[in-house]
Amino acid sequence: MFPGSIYVAIPAMDELQDLPQTLDDLARQEGCNTFEIFVCVNQPEAYWGLPDKCAICEHNQQLLKLLETFDGVRLHVLDCASRGRGWQGKKFGVGWARKTLFDHILTFADDRDIIISLDADTRVRPHYVQSVADNMHRHPEVPAVSVPYYHPLTGNEAQDRAILRYEMYMRNYAVNLYKIGSPYSFTAVGSAIAMRAGALRKIGGITPVKSGEDFYLMQKFVKMAPISNYNDEMVYPAARLSDRVFFGTGPAIIKGCRGEWDSYPVYHHSLFDSIAQTYQLLPQLYENDVQTDFLDFLQKQFNDTHLWQSIRQNVKDYGHFVHAFHEKADGLRILQYLRQKHKDFPMTDEDALAQNLAAWLPDEQLPNLSSSFDNLTVDDLNSLRDQLFEIESSLRRLI
User: What does the pLDDT read at residue 236?
Assistant: First the structure.
């Protein structure tokens, strides 16, 4: 039995349709019924004066009234949507909503307590909360968990094709990072994160950027201590179009429906070779400078040809050197490196995925990827998604 308290944090803007279903899922939790839910209903204050945003304001007010009468859960509502209470200036978006929720919970939570981050349109099964509690109770050294996720299909062909392509991008990227043993082999999905309150305090809370707040949060946890990438239960985020953030699932689906996939390529496994080589050479790098393509990239990024010498002079042993190296060569730098290398990589996404699958599953019958993803059916794309999901799941269990 988990000895601490559990808090579920849910940002909500214009979620009158979806949030009640998520709350119903939480009301039906089994094994653990002592958790509390905090919902931040939010919007920019300026929306009250914008005709095209009036519907969001009205829906938020209806949601606030609905939440007053919602039974079956221990529910607390933070009203950041009513007149005079909305976001001011540059302080807006899901990042600020999560920060508001987390900061509020941290005012009373003990260090051992758990905060589960969800989204208003994310479904969970009856044992989800208990599974997170059991997981973190079994692994007291873990500051946070990147929970497995799976987007249910909608029945809308364009949206389903887009979310499947986006998941293939994310899962291919994650599998490649798992394969080379990167500490940044996590998938940052805001509705698929659980953390210890004490760990959140220690890293200074969440950075409230408009997009990518989940990525930067998990990166901060990794720089503090290894995280977990596995949980017995997963979450099921909605696959819907959204332009509320600059990047992430919603914008990816919008771009995908337009056939724009340049921002979400299928990276070939060979692009990760220099990163893997660099990891293997860390004992030598601790003693003297060595050269790899990834190390050259990092020195250019930091505009410092003596980057590693400076680190050596400021650490007391090899373990601290490795930690300092990964502080520099973090998830953001890895992604920047891969984007740069991919620009000149002469291979289609279809061929890259085919070769990746052949490398990862040499003894299995693989799907035919000789034609464009656009020529595959939704069922074909779903089979590819599921194949990557199984590969990723097996690797998550090992980390």
Answer: 97
pTM tops 0.70:
yes
Q: Quick check: 241 pLDDT over 90?
A: no
Q: Are 115 and 136 in contact (CB under 8 A)?
A: no
Angle, helices 318-328 vs 213-224, to 10°: value is 170
Longest dimension (CA), the chain: 66
- Is 200:115 a contact under the CB 8 Å cutoff? yes
User: Does residue 97 sit in helix, strand or coil?
Assistant: helix
Q: In Å, what is the CA distance from 152 to each residue of 75, 78, 110, 145, 277?
A: 26, 29, 35, 21, 37
pLDDT in the model for residue 111:
97
Supply the DSSP string of 322-359, one letter for each residue.
HHHHHHHS-HHHHHHHHHHHHTT----HHHHHHHHHHH
- Looking at residue 354, its amino acid is A
Average pLDDT score over residue span 43-67:
96
Task: Name residue 209's amino acid.
Answer: V
How far is it, in rounded angstroms, from Cα 193 to Cα 131?
13
Q: Place 193 in a pLDDT band, splitting at 50, 70 and 90.
A: very high
Name the DSSP class of 49. G
Cβ contacts of residue 329 below 8 Å, gap of 6+?
Answer: 275, 278, 294, 298
DSSP state of 151: P
